[in-house]
């Protein structure tokens, strides 16, 4: 079956890309766009990155790119990959390869000229498609049929593909979340379940990167369900085992209905317990960034908010705590109440309360306490523990009064406190 994407791939018409493909195809060599750009175009989804496969050896890629006035960067030359910046856009160009040796994490490769062998070393059929410069799709592994069926399938033997790189277990569920429909491929699912212990060989950074991409899918709930049934979710994220993933579907629906952006961190919080000690361990194990660790910790430390809470009371808690932590709590509570509201009128009222409080928290700005230690020393206070205690007590009074007392009133209170 002949398939062309020429009329629906604006990115392929880019003049710099066309020049690059032409340069790499001179003298009997070949070059094609490979992988995600072809897949996403066929599925009607946006294309972010354009990767190229070529028969040219890496040094020849560099030579030809420079001859065209483009900038080559040897980002992975030992694996046959050169990044070429053309027209301000980076293109990752990789020489056709075959695996010589794998250990479940990385592979030793040999360069070749066989497109079928190159396709067969890839993970899934939908990721092993190529397209020529004129838009003609080259399918050597049945990827087009799988795209039409929204079916995610390993190339060849699923277990063999996984043993080449155990990260493919997580990629199986990630790509299913983004592109699959119905049930996952049975052979792929069984292979993932059998080989899940291999995840322990992977670096924490690779595991968290895949989990985050999975949690960024429009609705990862089905993928998470199958991950749990296969034992993969517990292997990768043991904190989720006794907490559950039931909240995910309601959260994604709330995101869609209320216009919230898909938020992988919020989705993670939906499936793990709000236990600060366990979240600290999770963040350390998966090597979270400082911002990710802080957000998870603040969420775990933020106490639950009741739907009847007043804005004034919430403002006090926001001042003493972390706003993002409370916003996350409120979003999860609102999503849960919306699910229950289908059959429970009380939950409908709760949803209204959470929605009100969330709107308040999102627009709330932390007020600045009007006094400093220097203000008390100007009144004659001696620096030391007593000054700090008075300042702390005054701030507490100011908070409990709804942040209403102004600087003058607080100075009067400070003067009286210093007299005692």
TrEMBL record:
SUPFAM superfamilies in the cross-refs: Nucleotidyltransferase, Poly A polymerase C-terminal region-like
Cofactors (names): Mg(2+)
**Any Pfam family the entry gives:** PolyA_pol_RNAbd
InterPro entries recorded = Bact_CCA-adding_enz_type3_sf, NT_sf, PolA_pol_head_dom, PolyA_RNA-bd
* Domain tRNA nucleotidyltransferase/poly(A) polymerase RNA and SrmB- binding positions: 188-240
Key words, A-Z = Magnesium, Metal-binding, Nucleotide-binding, Nucleotidyltransferase, RNA-binding, Transferase, tRNA processing
Key word Nucleotide-binding present: yes
CDD domains, per the entry? NT_ClassII-CCAase (cd05398)
Keyword Magnesium found: yes
Sequence ranges assigned to domain Poly A polymerase head in this UniProt record:
31-153
Top-level taxon: Bacteria
* Annotated family: Belongs to the tRNA nucleotidyltransferase/poly(A) polymerase family.
Cited PANTHER family? CCA TRNA NUCLEOTIDYLTRANSFERASE 1, MITOCHONDRIAL
The name under which this protein is listed is CCA tRNA nucleotidyltransferase
């Amino acid at each position: 079956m002949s398939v062309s994407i020429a009329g629906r791939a604006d990115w392929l018409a880019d003049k710099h890309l066309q020049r690059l493909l032409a340069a790499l195809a001179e003298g009997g060599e070949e070059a094609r766009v490979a992988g995600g750009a072809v897949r996403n175009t066929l599925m009607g989804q946006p294309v972010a990155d354009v990767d190229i496969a070529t028969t040219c050896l890496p040094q020849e890629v560099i030579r030809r790119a420079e001859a065209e006035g483009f900038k080559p960067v040897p980002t992975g030359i030992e694996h046959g990959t050169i990044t070429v910046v053309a027209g301000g856009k980076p293109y990752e160009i990789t020489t056709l390869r075959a695996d010589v040796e794998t250990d479940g994490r990385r592979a030793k490769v040999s360069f070749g000229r066989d497109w079928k062998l190159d396709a067969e070393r890839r993970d899934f059929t939908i990721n092993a498609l190529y397209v020529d410069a004129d838009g003609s799709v080259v399918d050597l592994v049945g990827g087009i049929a799988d795209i039409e069926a929204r079916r995610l399938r390993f190339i060849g033997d699923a277990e063999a593909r996984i043993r080449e790189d155990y990260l493919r277990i997580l990629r199986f569920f990630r790509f299913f979340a983004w592109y699959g429909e119905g049930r996952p491929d049975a052979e792929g699912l069984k292979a993932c379940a059998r080989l899940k212990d291999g995840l322990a060989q992977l670096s924490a950074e690779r595991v968290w990167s895949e989990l985050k991409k999975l949690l960024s899918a429009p609705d990862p709930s089905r993928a998470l369900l199958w991950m749990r049934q296969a034992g993969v979710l517990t292997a990768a994220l043991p904190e989720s085992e006794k907490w559950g993933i039931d909240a995910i579907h309601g959260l994604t629906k709330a995101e869609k209905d209320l216009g919230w952006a898909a938020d992988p961190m919020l989705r993670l919080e939906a499936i793990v317990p709000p236990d600060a000690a366990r979240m600290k361990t999770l963040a350390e194990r998966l090597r979270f960034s400082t911002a990710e660790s802080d957000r998870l910790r603040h969420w775990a430390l933020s106490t639950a908010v009741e739907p009847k809470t007043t804005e004034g009371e919430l403002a006090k808690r926001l001042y003493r705590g972390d706003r993002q932590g409370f916003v996350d709590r409120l979003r999860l509570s609102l999503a849960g109440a919306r699910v229950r509201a289908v059959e429970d009128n009380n939950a409908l009222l709760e949803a209204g309360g959470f929605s009100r409080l969330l709107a308040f928290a999102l627009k709330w700005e932390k007020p600045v306490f009007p006094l400093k230690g220097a203000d008390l020393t100007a009144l004659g206070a001696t620096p030391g523990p007593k000054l700090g205690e008075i300042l702390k007590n005054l701030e507490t009074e100011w908070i409990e009064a709804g942040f209403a007392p102004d600087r003058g009133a607080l100075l009067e209170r400070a003067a009286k406190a210093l007299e005692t």
